[in-house]
Structure formats: structure tokens, C-alpha cells
Amino acid sequence: MFLIDFETLKNFINSLINQYEIYAPIKKRDEYIFEKISNASEVVFENYIPTVLPPKKFLLPNEEKILKVNYKTKEAQPIFESKEFIIFGVRPCDLTAIYILDQIEADGNADPYYLERRKNAIIIGYDCEKSCDENALCNTVGSINPPEKSYDIFISKMNNNYVLIASTEKGKELVKNHITKKKNMDTSEIKEFNEKRAERITKFNQNVKYVFQDVTKIFEKHYNDPYWDEIGKKCLMCGSCIMVCPTCYCFAVEHEIDLKLENVYVKRRWDGCLLRDFSLVAGGHNFRPTASMRLKHRWNRKFNYLFKKYKISNCVGCGRCGRACLVNINPIDILNNIMKNHYSEVKK
Amino acid sequence: MNLNKNIFVPEKAQIVEIKQLTQLEKYFKIKLLERNSLNHKPGQFVMVTVYGVGEAPISVSSPPEPNSNEFELVVRKVGTVTYAMHNLKIGDIIGIRGPYGTYFSAEKFKSKDLLFIAGGIGIAPLRSFIKEVLKEANKYRKITILYGAKSPSYLLFLDEMKKWQKNKNVTISITVDEPDNNWNGNVGVITTLIPMVEIDSLNTLVTIVGPPVMYKFVLLALMSKKIPDENIYLSFERKMQCGIGKCGNCQIQNLYACIDGPVFCWANIKYLEEAL
Fold first, then answer.
1. Is B124 exposed, middle or buried (0-12, 13-18, 19+ CB in 10 A)?
2. Are residues A17 and A72 located together in one domain of the fold?
3. Residue B250's beta-bridge partner residues?
4. Final residue of a domain: which of A183, A203, A223?
5. Domains by residue range for chain B, with CATH
6. A139 pLDDT exceeds 50?
7. How far lies A1's CA from each of A90, A123, A185, A187, B38, in Å?
8. CB contact under 8 A, B9 and A280
């Protein structure tokens, strides 16, 4: 663990820019986005709400060509274009999401495209000192302390200085090669850091009134809670929530022929359960026709099915879906309303 | 199979025979160009690529043939990819991935009864299983096939069924919803055939493949015959974009039709509200 000052942190970023493509949160109009930077001065470090899209877009792009097929010979070549790059300033919620995607994409039939990009990604996390706004539920779902495997370097602010933890060989190399002015933290400094970091929990939202770990049990047992119909009446099925979610990973596949009829590109793009075509089969039957069924499915994925399978909440509490929703449907209300209806029974 | 191969790359296969079966359905015999056998089991599906159009999951309609690089598909012209398939000609190249998914097995029902229930195009995947079973028809006690279609012109494989019936223990009943002037057989939905079958409820394996709406009514009819849920198997149609448990389109609550299915035991899914 190293201690550096703000000047050194900026120099570190600038030194990395000389060698790598580096993406970091920047301000764009009134919002924040992950974008390629050319100087550390562009980076926003604090006091901003999560970026419009999570850094997932670098690992699982909204649209990607996965195969190039010669239209004449039908010979197919996988397309891998990724090279080593850095994502700087990834918040604990988004780090937790990357950890979750790492499990899911490597599970069963591993996704070669995700794994290739992930292998090339150097991830520098940046700690939060408090909740970003009232939509955040990171403290509830348990993502304010990101899993160690989700980052190469993790940076926390302490007394106007910055604590660096390099958790991988790649991270240690970067710290070694790009930071000259750094101080090895002594035991008392580490103790102070750990205490301060533990204390900061009081500055995070406590917006869910029930023990979160009981959620899978309640969702499983009360699959048909009437709250789904209530919010189903409001939902426009626009899909904003799935487009901004850091753990949604479902996709659609399309073929595109170039104008010369030489190559077919097999492309995949984000898709998800809130959208009409997602569960519609060719005969015209839609297996999940209503908004209430789709919301129920999406949130059971986050709080029940995948939570149970991977032993971690698949909602990481970033709050993006709540902010993006046009009719104010958000996970905090979903948890409070559904758990309220059945909580006493769980506690028996 | 090469384990290092990219799981999204289809292998090339050639159409070697095409038959127009009905107004909507065509039969395709496919020859693999890169392998000696598809090595599938009854009820499994392949992802079929029509280059430049897309990919769709299609159940294999022929029984396993370990020594042949050919297999059969029956395709109803209903969506983008299947429309394009109907425009293909003998000699054309398509892409194949798979076989994928769970499968049917009658292994535990030797010297017992088998009941097959097919609705519409559901006969296509079921044909794979029926023909596999009929390779050793005498190992089973009674084999009953119930088959329903919209109208006589949509009935598939009638010629083959005549051959199947030459086995002494095979009985086939067919019904149509909308008869034409030449039809002398049963009229009505498939459930009307079930009361006519004598079922040894504890010793019968029931396999059902048909459209979503059919399952509910067939299952109710089977329950009144007291058939244990463990002995009922069905195959589900869902939208699929990958076939390998990644794209999410085919989810049935926590299950994936592509890897946990398409063949499910009714006992395992009867509690899932999204199943039917």
C-alpha cells in the first residue's frame, strides 16, 4: 500500500496516457461518461453521479462484430480487435459488476469475446466516500467494498492524499514503473486508513428497511406479489433500465452484408427482457407479453436467480436504472414494497 | 470436436435433399462437411445459419446415426431465417452449430409403454425420438402415437407412419381441427384422443411436443389419467440467439431452454409460472 499526493496521482495518469489508451469519467454537459482522455485534467474524481453508461461498454460493447464470413466460400473468421487498455476511475459498484460479469461470462460455455477484452483491460478503481445521490443502494446490496479480483489498482482518498492498493502483477508493475514519488504506508497509517474506511459507511444511504439477504427467499416465495402489476401499469417497456445496467449482459445477433456482397458480418448488440422482441418467437407468440412479467423477470434475475447461482446480488446498487427510468420505477421502491408485504413471515 | 474452436463459428454443411412436405413445411437433408456425424440425441437442436440472414434453432428430425454425416431438419416457413431457408436449393451451404440441449431417452422404459403426443410441427423433433425407439420396437410393450394437426393438408410423415404401424405394438391415432371433404378420421383437438387410449399410468413414458397452447390442455388430460409428473417429458420452443446459455432470450425464470432444455421433465418445471 502506497500513499501519494494529488499532483502525483495526476502525473501517474499522464504517464499512463503516454503508453496506453486510457478511459476515465469526464463531464459531458450535465452528465458524466467514460471517455478516452488525453490529459489527467479532464478526469472527474469526486462528487459526481455514476456515468450514463457503466464501464461494461468496454468489455461488452453495445454492438460488436464477432465473425466475418466470406459470402462466397462461407469461411468464417472470429473478429478479435481488442488491445491492452486502461479504465481509470471505476467505482466500487461498477467494480462489483465487473466481478459478477467475470463469473457469468466464464461460466459454462465461456464467452471468448468478453474474456479477450477482459484480459486486455487494466482496471483502476476509485473509492467512494459517500453515496452519490438518493438513488444509490450500494450500501444495501453490499457493493461499497469491491471484490479484490475486480481491479488491478484501487485508489482511496485519505486526508487529501491517496492510498494505492495494487492487487495484481499488472497493477504492481504500473505503480512501480509510473510512480516515482510514493511512500510505503507504515502500520499506523494502514490502521488509520482501515478505520476511516470502515467509518465512512455512515455516509452511505440506508434506504432499504429490511435485511437485504432475505430478498431471495421472499422473491422466490412470492413470485406473484401484486406490486409487479402495480409498477407494470406504469412501465413503458422502453428498456432504459437494461441499457444502463452494469450487470445486464443479454444480447441479440444480427447478420450484416457489406455493399459489395463480399462479407457477412455476424454482429451482436445489447438486448434485454424489457423489450418486446426479446421473448417473441417467429410464430407471433410472446412468452413474456406484459410489462409486469418483464419487470418481475428482470428483478428476479438480479435479486433471486443469479443472486443464488453466483452468491452475490446481481444488482450492484449503482442506481442508474432508477435515474434513467421515465416513470420513476427503481429498485429501492421494489425492495421496500415487496419485502414489506412478506417480511414478518420470513422472520418467523 | 476441437475444444479450441470459437463457439460462435458455425461449421459448413450442405443441403443434399429438399422435399416440400406441406404448404408451410419443407424437409431438408443436410450433409456435414467437417465431421463424420452430428452425434446428436433425440430432442436436441442445432443452430442453423443462413449466411447474410441470421441464425435460428431447429430441432433435428432424424434419429441418431453415428455412422452418417447426414441428418434431417423439417422447417416451417414462419420467421426471417426459416423463410430464407425455404429459398435455398440443393447444393447450397448453410452453417451448423450444435447439437445443443437436453434430450429424450426411453432407456428406463424398456418393456414398458411409450406414449408420444405431437401437435403440428411438434412431430418433427418427436420423429427423431420415435424412429430411434422403433429401431428396437420389440423392447417396449406398447407404443402409442397421438398426432394432431390443423387440417389434413398439414399432416406430416403419413407415409412413414404407415411403416411405423407395421410394428405390432405400435398404434397411431391422428386428428385434425378442420377436416376437408376427403377426411374420414378423427376431428377435434389432440386432447380428444387421450381418453381413447388405455394407459397403464405408472408404466408409461409420455413425451409431448407441440405449440405452447397445447401443453396446458394435454397436461390436464394426462393428470386425469394419473400419470406421475416424473414420467412426462416435454420440449419447449423459445427464442434463441446463441444456443449456449449466454444471450438470455430463452430464459424460463431461472432456467435456459437452450442448456437446461429444450427437453424438460414436467416434475422439474411444473412450479415455474413461465413454463406454460
1. buried
2. yes
3. none
4. A203
5. 11-100 (2.40.30.10), 107-235 (3.40.50.80)
6. yes
7. 19, 17, 6, 10, 55
8. no
The CA distance from B160 to B256, in Å, is 33
- Domain identity same for A196 and A235: no
Does position A347 have pLDDT exceeding 70, yes or no? Answer: no
Read off the pLDDT band of A307 (50, 70, 90): very high
pLDDT in tens, B261-271: 999 999 999 99
- Is the minimum CB–CB distance between B242 and chain A shorter than 8 Å? yes
| Interface touch B78/A71, C-beta < 8 Å | no
Same domain, A171 and A289: no
| A positions 24-53 inside 8 Å of B (CB) | none
- To the nearest whole Å, the CA of A190 is away from the closest chain B CA by 42
How many structural domains comprise chain A? 2
Domain that holds residue A231: 212-347
* Beta carbons of B10 and A297 less than 8 Å apart: no
> Has residue B1 got a pLDDT over 80?
no
- Whether residues A172 and A268 share a domain: the answer is no
ipTM for the whole predicted complex goes beyond 0.85: yes
- Judge whether A6 is closer than 8 Å to chain B, CB to CB: no
Helix (H, G, I), strand (E, B) or coil at A317: coil
Please indicate, yes or no, whether residues A152 and A292 belong to a single structural domain of this protein.
no
pLDDT tens-digit readout, A151-203: 999 999 998 999 999 999 999 999 999 999 899 999 999 999 999 999 999 99
> Nearest CA of chain A to the CA of B238: how many Å?
7
- Contact status, residue A276 vs residue A237, Cβ threshold 8 Å: yes
DSSP at A287 = S
Distance of alpha carbon A154 from alpha carbon A163, whole angstroms: 8
H runs (alpha helix) in A121-178: 138-141, 169-178
Cα angle value A90/A91/A93 (rounded, 5°): 120
Q: For B246, which of A111, A305, A308 is closest by C-beta distance? A: A111
Please indicate if any CB of chain A lies within 8 Å of the CB of B272.
no
Cross-chain residue pair B212–A285, CB shorter than 8 Å: yes
Q: Are A150 and A122 in contact (CB under 8 A)?
A: no
Do A137 and A11 share a structural domain? Answer: yes
Q: Which residues of B touch A224 (CB under 8 A)?
A: 273
Selected residues 80-99 of chain B with any CB under 8 Å from a CB in chain A:
80, 82, 93, 95
Q: Residue B273's closest chain A neighbor by CA? A: A223
Closest CA to A337 of A241, A210, A232: A210
pTM score, whole prediction = 0.95
Strand partners, B29: B17, B72
- Minimal C-alpha gap between B247 and chain A (Å): 5
Instruction: State what percent of residues in chain A have pLDDT above 90.
Output: 92
Residue B48 amino acid letter: V
A185 and A216 co-located in one domain: no
* Same domain? A182 vs A55: yes
Which chain B residues have a beta carbon less than 8 Å from that of A288? 274
One DSSP character per residue, A6-27 reads HHHHHHHHHHHHHHSEEEEEEE
Nearest CB neighbour to A283, from listed B8, B78, B246: B78
Cell 463480399 locates to: A262
- Closest Cβ opposite residue B239 in set A76, A78, A280: A280
